[in-house]
Amino acid sequence: MKNILITGGAGFIGSNFIRYLLLDERFDGNIVNLDKLTYAGNLMSLRDVAERREGKGYEFVRGDIADYPLVADLFKKHRIDTVVHFAAESHVDRSIHGPADFVRTNIVGTFNLLDAARASWKSPEGKRFHHISTDEVFGSAEAGTAFTEASPYDPSSPYSATKASSDHLVRAYVRTYGMPATISNCSNNYGPYQHPEKLIPLMVLNASEGKELPIYGDGGNVRDWLHVLDHCSAISLILKKGRVGETYNVGGRCEKRNIEIVERICAMIEQRMPGRKCAGLIKHVTDRRGHDRRYAIDSRKIERELGWKPRRSFDQGLAETVDWYLANREWVDAVRSGEYMKWIEKNYSMR
Ligand code: NAD
Ligand code: TDX
Quick one: average pLDDT of 250-268? Predict the structure, then answer.
């Protein structure tokens, strides 16, 4: 792991992963962060890192993973030996309203990266392609069951169908071309730098601003929550010790109903903002189409084979996350405002 191409490193999990690597004193590799800076990518999430490390083992490139010449050029120029592929259109609701970008980035983009790696890597020795995927590829889990690595794929949304498709491409490249690849399918992440379109940051910010808290359907849908830094530690372990061709499921053993999460956030906001009353803000709205009822991950394989364990309890992680969004208004305002995109257009031309 010397010259790492990280795709989607300006997004939620990618930016946390880059910080995770660069804060580790034992890490002596070089990182190229390739990100298109869509509405979901935000360089402010890496401002501290860039100030200290830009040009010193860290480089940002604004570009599209679906642009083959660009990707091939980066492999060559930076002698890339490792890919950690986060870049994706990631929001289920957006995929329902406009699936085309999801097909382009999640399927064509992943294909491009695989093909550029195939063309560039003459031998699999010392190379690794790690593909970040999701538990949503398995569809909805029946009560009492949890997804294993052998669970059948049964995606419900255009988002999860495109992620499933990209997983299949990665596996096909392993079997057909001997691509030294691994895949991880992770459950719902939470933590700092997550776009406020997603449940937890949306509810924290709306509750703190006295805005409505929209719960899809009856609020009984269950997600399995994992702190983003516990996901980062899983990815790092897979890169170091994971077996080529294998898939690892990563989850928090932390199933919660959406309504329970929102009620907890309300209680935390009321505690932190005396006078604010949140219960009346909860509003049940029309359900998401194709809404999976429950996700649950069985992560015994990564625990057993690689010794991974999540370190943060949900109580502690959620409280820290609520505090982070309340303390980082500058980041929130930048993500929400069109001014930020104008600044990006001015300072970062597309490669
Ligand atoms: P995100 O939406 O916060 O970030 C995605 C990043 O990819 C953004 O910075 C965006 O600008 C970039 N991007 C989008 N299209 C691109 C393109 N064509 N070329 C280059 N860059 C592009 O997403 P996230 O929540 O950080 O998710 C990262 C990965 O993890 C995704 O592959 C997602 O499917 C997977 N995942 C996410 C979760 C979760 O709970 N957030 C859980 C499991 C798996
Ligand atoms: O306003 C809302 N109201 C609501 O009830 C939003 C935004 C969400 N929800 C519900 C839908 C889901 O049951 O909350 C749950 C979580 O929703 P999201 O935050 O949109 O996440 P989800 O659809 O579960 O997908 C997330 O986890 C898996 C990520 O966005 C995916 O990229 C990842 O693969």
Answer: 97
For ligand 1, is residue 297 a contact (CB within 6 Å)?
no
Superfamily designation of domain 3-285+293-347: NAD(P)-binding Rossmann-like Domain (3.40.50.720)
| Active centre residues (catalytic) | 135-136, 159
Residue nearest to atom 20 of ligand 2 (CA): 198
What H or E segment, with its residue span, contains residue 223? strand 222-227
Ligand 2 centroid, distance to 34 Cα (angstroms): 25
- Who's near 79: CB < 8 A, 6+ residues apart? 2, 3
Please check whether residue 139 is in contact with residue 94, taking contact to mean a CB–CB distance below 8 angstroms. no
Residue minimizing CA distance to atom 29 of ligand 1: 86
Q: What gap in Å lies between CA 289 and CA 340, rounded to an integer?
A: 31
Residues 2/83, Cβ–Cβ less than 8 Å:
no
d(CA 213, CA 258): 11
Angular region, 141: left φ>0, alpha ψ -120 to 50, beta rest: beta
Mind listing the pLDDT tens digit for each residue in 138-168? 999 999 999 999 999 999 999 999 999 999 9
